[in-house]
Amino acid sequence: MNKELINYLSQFISETRRAKFDEVLNFRTRHITIVLEDLYQPHNASAVLRSCDIFGIQDIHIIENKNAYTVNKDIAMGAPKWLNLHKYRNSENNTLEAIKNLKAKGYRIVATSPNNNDVTIENLPVDKPLALFFGTELTGISDTVMEQADEFVKIPMFGFTESFNISVSAALCIYSLTSKLHKLDVDWHLSDAEKEQLILTWLRKSIRKVELIEKDFLEKRKNN
Q1: Counting CB atoms within 10 angstroms of each CB, which of 29, 106, 203, 223 has the fewest?
Q2: Which helix (H) or strand (E) covers residue 22, if one does?
Q3: Do 127 and 208 have their domain in common?
Q4: What digits encode the pLDDT tens for the residues 143-194?
Q5: Cβ–Cβ contacts within 10 Å for residue 130, how many?
């Protein structure tokens, strides 16, 4: 029924917007996912979401141990509307819950932190699914992430300043990894079923009074 509903709802948006959905879906991926641990500055949280949308990262996992995750709408520019946000806020150790969930789905846990075994971002393999962890603005990723990480990654720096702003760091990493991913012969695209579900979600978020329109669709379908 999803295909029928998608075709029906597509009548209520412009052809240009519908074509844009298909164009964006061709570059959407779950092969790479971003994990944000305890960010507390809304402009950073928002800027990371914007970068994820621009570079095609569909899923963002948000860990709230001490800090609630808030978004600045002016900076996010509507990005959350097109993304899947997965929040971890109800466990004794939300970070560990997130890590276990991601590992169960086949992701390698990658900590964005210098380490004796680290690699630079351009040398991080992307042939297997990876979850890239970014920590709080002041202290970085937690000891739990450091202990559970499969790999460590850093961005080369050649100046006096010790680190990038978290949103800049995320943008640089995502761009580097997705650029490399697009050149590899690995299946990083969404499945047809995932694409259908996303199109349906985006249509519902794009059409005013969509509940009434869907109700009309179901009634017509029932009577035919």
Answers
A1: 223
A2: helix 15-25
A3: no
A4: 999 999 999 998 888 887 777 888 999 999 999 999 999 999 999 999 999 9
A5: 23
- Kind plus residue range of the DSSP H or E element containing 32: strand 32-37
Model-level pTM?
A: 0.92
Does one domain contain both 84 and 162? yes
The region that residue 150 occupies, defined by phi over 0 for left and psi between -120 and 50 for alpha, beta otherwise, is alpha
Q: Three-class SS of residue 7? A: helix
Q: Which residues of 151-170 are buried (b: 16+ CB within 10 A; e: fewer)?
A: bbbbbeeeeeeeeeebbebb
Half-sphere exposure for 53 (CA within 13 Å, toward CB): 18
d(CA 76, CA 34) in angstroms, rounded, equals: 16
Handedness of CA 96, 172, 81, 193 (dihedral sign): negative
Handedness of CA 66, 67, 68, 69 (dihedral sign): negative
Residue 10 lies in a domain: no
Phi, psi (rounded to 5 degrees) for 28: -75, 145
Distance of CA 129 to the CA centre of its chain: 13
Same-domain pairing of 102 and 123: yes
- For 130, the 3-state DSSP assignment is strand
Task: Indicate if the alpha-carbon torsion angle 105, 173, 170, 150 is positive or negative.
Answer: positive
